[in-house]
Amino acid sequence: MKTENQKAWFLVLPVLVLVAFSALIPLMTVVNYSVQDTFGNNKFFWAGTQWYVQVLHSERFWNALGRNLVFSGIILAVEIPLGVLVALNMPKKGWGVPVCLVLMALPLLIPWNVVGTIWQVFGRVDIGLLGAALNGVGIDYNYVQHPIDAWATLIVMDVWHWTSLVALLAYAGLVSIPDAYYQAARIDGASPIAVFRYIQLPKMGRVLTIAILLRFMDSFMIYTEPFVVTGGGPGNSTTFLSIDLVQMAIGQFDLGPAAAWSLIYFLIILALSWVFYAVMTRNDGKSATGEEGAS
Fold first, then answer.
1. What is the Cα–Cα distance from 204 to 274, expressed in whole angstroms?
2. Domains in the chain, start-ordered, CATH in brackets?
3. Residue ranges in the chain modelled with pLDDT below 70
4. What is the pLDDT of residue 11?
């Protein structure tokens, strides 16, 4: 009888302890704040579900949630197809491969607050190249005054910053496809569209699942870039859940409602990410079953 070696747990244990200390303890602190109220002097009083009810009945919360969902939907609809298109046109061999990989990685190396500052200056109508150029050709562009311009600026900024991630993941899936698939497609006389639909897209399924999950979570939790560029304005047009949460916790110092808000925010992200993953892996499992049956 073969016994399992349990010594590997000694290597994993430090990681589990670190995760528990850095994630679970702060999370439990937030849970504690969400069910209590304070009047200062470090004195707390039991509030129960009062803050959760207040947040869920708040028009401010639902408006911010709607803005988050719209923004994430636009980001996924633009960046995923665009990233796949870029990956399809990247060279697969030769000196162009490292050049393209380095160029694709450059936007990902820029810190988020720096990206926000770059686009804040870039879009200004007085000194910014983008703002001055658009106004110079007769387009009334001002992301500080017009909500549509603010949204367009944030979307273009995010596409510029993060499409490279999707492209690199899709490229990794493409280069892992064996040449035998392409040789069989050439023998059958398959068109480029057929090759993409029946060979490249299914083989990129797993990496695209990762790309969609990463981009959804990042876009849904976005804070630094819109805060630096628009500050949530004009008005509340770009005030996402994260910006509203920081204003409530730090600006207004409403710790109870802010803690309840953050936990609801966390559960929404967790639930939507699970739905994305469950739907995409279910389709992947069906396609795998179909391939086995066909063989």
1. 20
2. 66-294 (1.10.3720.10)
3. 1-5, 40, 283-295
4. 80
